[in-house]
Amino acid sequence: MAQYLGKLNKFKEFFQLLFGHPMGFVGVAIITLFLAMAFFAPYLGTVDPTASGDADNLLMPPSSQFWFGTDDLARDIWSQTIYGSRISLTIGFVAALITVFSGTFVGLIAGYYGKILDEVLMRIVDFFMMLPELPLMIVLAAVLGPSMWNIILVVSLVSWPTTARVVRSQVLSLKERPFVESSRCIGASNFQLMFSEILPNVVPLMFAQAVLMITEAIYAEAVLSFLGLGDPTSISWGMMLHSVFESGVISESYWWVVPPIVSIVTLIVSFSLLGTAVSDILEPGYREKKGF
Amino acid sequence: MALIEVKNLKIYFMTRRGPAKAVDNIGFSIEKNKTLGLIGESGCGKTTTAMSLMKFIKPPGQIVGGSIRFMGNDIVPMADEQIRQLRGKEISIVRQEAQNALNPVLTIGKQITEMILEHESVTKETALDRAKKQLNLVGISDQRIDSFPHEFSGGMKQRAMAAIATACNPKFLILDEPTTGLDVIVQRQILGMLRKLKTELNLTAVFISHDLSVVAETCDRVAVMYAGKIMEESDTVSLYQTPLHPYSKALIGAYPSLKGERRQLKSIPGVPPSLIDPPPGCRFTPRCELAQTICSRQEPVLKMIDGGRVACHMVK
To answer: To the nearest whole angstrom, how far is the Cα of A130 from the nearest Cα of chain B?
Structure first.
């Protein structure tokens, strides 16, 4: 029981530190706002974002009925913006999870075992690093049909090597540290050395990478959708920009352009803020400075 | 019965200029519950010998001959996995430089429990309880169990290392200069703590140090090493009072004493020989005051004298 309490306390302490960090506070606040938006989308005064409205309401500027105005098919832009957060957040989190975990795993194995295994894994990493994102996406979209999962697949495929590289180089230095040799001296197995001695030292790096990957994935989704490589049936911020560009009214209808752009930028910035705060907090010396 | 018995042990480091004989044909045994001190200058093979007792010799080092019997079983031919299970569980080590030997991102409690969980199938709660007991045993309050290494002082880190090393109740403990880098007051505390550990856990130990006073205080028997060889081995009192080998004499003569008349400390002239190409005969010949022709011709063997052993032509 005591140890669960201890865990809980640590959890509490982490969040206290996070909220005490100005960047962390702002980041978490904005991300929470977006998460709430995605979660409670149906209850936020929205209508079906894909349903075309009356022909009278085409390209309406913001009003009390259409908070953010309407697009060229008389669809409600407020609703599109709200529902769009679902796609961006899903792609961001899933892609980041996949890349960070696979990248860390490969980097850890390659760095720890070294020699031939390292050589082979790093050549594979080189191969995936050189895959061009856009052409790959176009090809995949053509072969598999455009969908959110393709974007996740492509983003993961081209970004795990970066994590693998970064983690590997860190592991190369960590495995030579005296504490690793000490643990080996008192009977730690390779598995234990890798996952309970070296891995905890890489966690801050994983967090930094995860945040980087989330922002990268959100950005990639926007770019790919904007270029028309996203799933045309789903509503996302990138897709909105794509539609406004296609419609040819981009210069007149500011209310259609501003919401997706502001959303993308705000979300990406808030993740960067969170990343900076978390890597500060995970630094072992930080707790003292804050008097914990 | 001897808990650990080393015979004809040879450890060479394969360098480009040929094998460096870091440990050359040495033998000793340690009785249960006794402590053997290994003393000598830097680079005489003390640490190499100690690490070999848990078969922890990294390339280019290599055990080229001899046997190390731990409770009757030779560990030299053992497979890696077999020896890994002995490490920490049966044979454990407290190393020098405790400052860097703890994982900076894990709490002390986690590092002790991990060690227990690796070697024994107990629940996390039991392991945690035992970790607390270990901390108390080495003189740290168990409330510090969630502290990180950087929140500990140097002495506390060394205590924590000892707590980790003895967490699985090993039978044999290697103390590789455990007090190096600590100031004398902390050294004294650590030595007291180690003595307490030794009696409470029934430990047999080998104590490596170049600090003669520390060895005198902790060990039952002492072996003096020089250039990869054991020069003299004897019980602590007789070694310090009547050293036989000229090297032991010189070593002890080079150390100040609190009692007795004040005298000029003598240093040993010269430097230890190359281990790749050691001098023929006795390796101490070039620096020895008593050296005769026979010394550089014939290698002296260890002779039994008064319950000790000494390798010198000049000792009759």
So the answer is: 35
Q: Are strands B172-176 and B221-226 parallel, antiparallel or unpaired?
A: unpaired
Domain A71-284: CATH class, spelled out: mainly alpha
Residue that is written with structure tokens 């996406």 in the block: A137
Cβ–Cβ of B93/A6 closer than 8 Å? Answer: no
- DSSP assignment, residue A177? S
> Each residue of A231-255: pLDDT tens digit?
777 888 888 888 888 877 777 777 7
Contact A186 B115 (CB under 8 A): yes
CB-based contact, B146 to chain A, within 8 Å = yes
Tokens of B245: 């080998």
Q: What is the pLDDT of residue A270?
A: 93
Give yes or no for residue B71 having a pLDDT over 50.
Answer: yes
> Does A23 score more than 70 pLDDT?
yes
Check whether the bond before B60 is cis (ω within 30° of 0).
yes
Q: Which two tokens stand for residue B50?
A: 């100690």
- Subunit contact A201:B104, Cβ cutoff 8 A: yes
Q: For residue B315, with 0-12 CB atoms within 10 Å meaning exposed, 13-18 middle and 19 or more buried, which class applies?
A: middle
SS3 label, residue A67: coil
With beta carbons less than 8 A apart as the criterion, state whether B69 and B239 touch. Answer: no
Residues A177-192 have a mean pLDDT of 87
Domain assignment of residue B113, yes or no? no
Residue B184 Cα distances to A129, B152, B187, angstroms: 56, 18, 5
Report pLDDT digits (tens) over B12-49.
Answer: 998 888 888 888 888 888 988 889 999 888 888 888 88
Give the structural domain span for B216.
2-90+170-310
Write the residue in A3, A179, A203 that is nearest to B101 by C-beta: A179
Q: Do B95 and A6 touch (CB under 8 A)?
A: no
Q: Collect all residues of chain A within an 8 Å Cβ-Cβ radius of residue B114.
A: 192, 196
What is the distance between the alpha carbons of residues A141 and A148, in angstroms, rounded to a whole number? 10
CB contact under 8 A, A182 and B87: no
Do the domain assignments include residue B150?
Answer: no
| Min distance B273 CA to chain A CA atoms (Å) | 29
- The structural domain count of chain B equals 1
* Alpha-carbon gap: B1 to the closest alpha carbon of chain A (Å): 25
Residue A284 Cα, gap to closest chain B Cα (Å): 7
Q: Do A186 and B151 touch (CB under 8 A)?
A: no
Prediction pTM value: 0.78
The pLDDT tens digits for A148-164 are 888 888 888 888 999 99
| Domain annotation covers residue B73 | yes
pLDDT confidence of residue A1: 37
Residues in A closer than 8 angstroms to B146, CB to CB, are: 6
Interface test with B, best of A4, A176, A184, A186 (most B CBs within 10 A): A186
The residue-averaged pLDDT of B210-231 equals 87
CATH number for the domain spanning B85: value is 3.40.50.300
B114–chain A Cβ distance below 8 A for any pair: yes
Asked whether residue B260 is assigned to any structural domain, the reply reads yes
Question: Which residue has 């007792």 as its token pair?
Answer: B53
Residue B79, classified by CB atoms within 10 Å of its CB into exposed (0-12), middle (13-18) or buried (19+), is exposed
